[in-house]
Design goal:
The chain is of the alpha+beta class and 241 residues long. The chain has a domain of 75 residues: Pseudouridine synthase (2-Layer Sandwich), CATH 3.30.2350. 13% of the residues lie in helices and 30% in strands. It has four helices and 13 strands. It is globular.
Length: 241
Amino acid sequence: MSSPNVSTKGTSPTGPLPLPKGPLPERRSFIYAPPTDPLKIIHEDDDLLVVDKPAGLLSVPGRDLPDSLQTRLKDRYPESLLVHRLDMATSGLMVFARNKTAQRHLGLQFERRHTTKTYLARIAGTVDGESGRINLPLIADWPNRPRQMVSWKHGKPSTTDWEVLAREENTTRLALHPITGRSHQLRVHCWAIGHPILGDRIYAMDDVFEAAPRLQLHAWKLGLRHPTGGDPIEFESPCWF
């Protein structure tokens, strides 16, 4: 994982890196069949809800796909308001507001990067080093949406810190800390450095895609300040993989 834009010392790298040259899979067929398990509420109070989103469920309704975490949550909490999103294939923590003031307060924390987010991922191969930073600018690959890609000319700055949690046979377990919040950022950054996430339908070749029954990416920990009073609060969602 040595390159001018992939640091193994946690410092911000400089200098251009050639575009990733790893293979990408052909577009895979997909049928939306979300899990039907009951909502798992991690925390609730007068201002916010913290929910454990299952993998395979949209965060918000899609085109012709009305079933989503937001939809289900509104059946039980009609006042709930969206603050941020997770990819459909990603599981883990999502926070919703219960009033407009809390939504505005929480939204600004995400926008201004005042939250702390930690994801768990299992990636293909063995990573060199124990921690570091990935700086690769990202932009939508419009002809191949929803795929994203690295673009030095048009991409938006995108930064991910990482640290090794465990090395397993032919895989590595990472804690990923997104500094920015681009679409598919963690998935593209892992693919671009040659270590795609196991079970990734969009970016992994067949052997890595078939190595897990689902995307091995989980929103594990979330830290923010409470909309009322500003006290720091932290939440954690257990990860099964």
